[in-house]
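step: validate -> pass
step: tokenize input -> pass
step: predict -> running
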Amino acid sequence: MRMTSKLSLCTLRNVEKLFLVSHVGTVRWMSIGMQKGSNFFFRQLFDTLSSTYTYLLGDMKTKEAVLIDPVLEHAERDASLIKELGFNLIYAMNTHMHADHITGTGKLKSLIPGSKSVIGKASGAKADIHLVDGDSVSFGGHKLLATATPGHTNGCLTYICHEQGIAFTGDTLLIRGCGRTDFQEGSSESLYNSVHTKIFTLPDNYTLYPAHDYKGQTATTVLEEKKYNPRLTKPLNEFIQIMNNLNLPYPKMIDKAVPANRVCGLY
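step: predict -> pass
step: emit ->
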């Protein structure tokens, strides 16, 4: 506190700018901010019950926006925020067919007419748009590259925004962890290969945003996970052994969530 009181107003303003502005390789995106001097909007939202992150991305000039991994119980919250900020939601997207919560994509379509649901084709789930590896989703002047990263489920996609140096990894790669592989087409070998060939090959300074976090962290980087992920830094055979011996409980929501998510959350 003593040090803070001695800082000049100019210094404080510089500190504020450092933490609110995102330059690739310098600082991470703040979960409540957007890049000053840019028309790219970013907002990170959270569901406490399932520890799910939902991401709102928008173009400040055209007002087109996309929402990644919405949760049914927060559809009204998300729709209200989108309207309040003056955005036009064009796509409500999922990184995969979730087993721990019901998606809000179907509900959002009724709350925001004209918006479309998006998911990976390999998921087998209903949606207006099905993506395959290499497809892109555009909103205003910005673009997300859909990259197939199966292993947690067959239809897992990582959405990469190269212009901003960020990626949304779903359950494939979590902060110091990864999605489980013991149900819903899970494959430890596929997940390991997905991470090492599709995510760990991104530039080290890319910021990664997962679908969930259970310890209060909001983001990580490619370099951090390559160095510190306790599972994925191991050789493949050790990783498979780790995943085979997690002894996790049966997912509480899976019997309700998966059937609902097959039909865009409308059941």
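step: describe -> The first helix runs from residue 2 to 6.
step: cleanup -> pass
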